[in-house]
Write a structure and sequence with these properties.
Layout lengths: L7 H7 L1 H11 L11 H9 L2 E6 L1 H18 L3 E5 H4 L10 E7 L5 H12 L3 E6 L5 H5 L2 E4 L12 H20 L8 H16 L2 H12 L4 E6 L2 H17 L2 E6 L16 E6 L5 H12 L4 E7 L9 E3 L7 H19 L18
Helix pairs in contact: 2-8, 2-9, 3-8, 4-8, 4-11, 8-13, 9-13, 10-13, 11-13
Bound molecules: 5-amino-5-deoxy-1-O-phosphono-D-mannitol.
GO biological process, one term: protein N-linked glycosylation
Subunit structure: Homodimer.
GO molecular function, one term: glutamine-fructose-6-phosphate transaminase (isomerizing) activity
């Protein structure tokens, strides 16, 4: 039930801090440590390469998940769009492990790949919000998102839940492998949940940003580097899906290789700056687009901010920044759609779960 909320999407955005806390609880053992089923951790440790398969928002979560797994657990990861992978499989490694990420657990494109890899005799793990879903039943292992039902077509809380579960999987694997690249994840996810609370309270500010940048535009671009690039892809999907504004996410460094030709007077550019190593270079990209007339909206993380920034996010562990930086993008999309009288929860031409290939 959406209760007093005008839309499920807004309710689901608001639920995110509680979902993160629930995930931490669900994956904690009696001594308060985060744990994962030993069979899954053995399968992770035995893999020489991990293949993440997903679609849409879940694919975007996979792109961030790759960074978690590679940076913490030091296992190489490839991320593939399910509908492409199915007919164009890359050369596989000797001991692959497949991870399917799917909120619904019913996405036909992902299932087609699962059927294929099971036939080849490989192990598969499904990360899903729906216990007993097709992808969960047909895989060897399942990790649940604990996000509660997601009703709005635009995925919000499932994305942050996917990131939280992927971070736990990566960190627990790293611990089991005796690596020093682990972090105090229970504590860090607690900080993430508290930061999310603050962002959710900043709705008026997000509505103002949507009004200022997106009320009349026909297009909008999201730029970022490293993890911020992947969050930009998700932000642009959210915006196009529910507001019908033509939106694209780009890697900051790719602008000069073509995209910059699209910048006109007043074109909104939403730039994310949460990663210290690329802070200067993304700001250089903002200068390049401003010189061509763009209207920049910089969302940065505290400690990296400059005076020109439109919104500053509270500090969280740098690797976990996507869990908080996506929230303003979800809210901005929500308000942009609302201002344009769009059907926020049920955008045209879309279904909540895509059960045809
Ligand atoms: O249920 P799934 O996670 O497998 O769904 C995948 C995509 O269809 C889904 O994420 C879609 O892109 C959302 N509508 C995005 O908001």
């Amino acid at each position: 039930e959406k209760g007093t909320y005008p839309h499920y999407m807004l309710k689901e955005i608001d639920e995110q801090p509680a979902v993160i806390r629930k995930i931490v609880q669900a994956y904690q053992n009696e001594s308060g440590d985060l744990t994962i089923d030993g069979n899954i951790i053995s399968a992770m440790g035995a893999a020489d390469r991990i293949y993440i398969i997903a679609a849409g928002t879940s694919y975007h979560a996979g792109l961030v998940g790759k960074q978690f797994i590679e940076k913490m657990a030091k296992i190489p990861v490839e991320v593939h769009v399910a509908s492409e992978f199915v007919y164009n499989m890359p050369l596989l490694s000797e001991n692959p492990l497949f991870i399917f990420i799917s909120q619904s657990g019913e996405t036909a494109d992902s299932r087609a790949v699962l059927v294929e890899v099971k036939e080849l005799g490989y192990k598969a793990l499904t990360i899903t919000n729906v216990p007993g879903s097709t992808l969960s039943r047909e895989a060897d292992y399942t990790l649940l998102l604990h996000a509660g039902p997601e009703i709005a077509v635009a995925s919000t809380k499932a994305y942050t839940a996917q990131l939280a579960v992927l971070s736990i999987l990566a960190n627990v694997t790293a611990t089991s492998l005796g690596l020093s690249s682990t972090i105090d994840l229970g504590h860090e996810l607690g900080i993430v949940a508290n930061s999310m609370d603050g962002l959710i309270d900043a709705k008026e500010e997000m509505e103002a940003i949507a009004r200022e940048y997106l009320s009349t535009t026909r297009n909008a671009f999201f730029i970022g580097r490293s993890l911020d690039f992947y969050v930009g892809l998700e932000g642009s999907l959210k915006l196009k899906e529910i507001s019908y504004i033509q939106a694209e996410g780009f890697a900051g460094g790719e602008l000069k290789h073509g995209t910059i030709a699209l910048i006109e007077d007043g074109t909104p550019i939403i730039a994310l700056a949460t990663q210290e190593a690329v802070n200067l270079s993304i700001r250089g990209n903002v200068k390049e687009v401003v010189a061509r007339g763009a209207n920049p909206c910089i969302i940065s993380m505290k400690g990296l901010e400059t005076e020109e920034d439109r919104f500053v996010l509270p500090v969280v562990h740098e690797l976990l920044a996507p869990l908080v930086s996506v929230i303003p993008l979800q809210l901005i999309s929500y308000y942009a759609a609302l201002h344009r009288d769009c059907d926020v929860d049920k955008p045209r031409n879309l279904a909540k779960s895509v059960t045809v290939e």
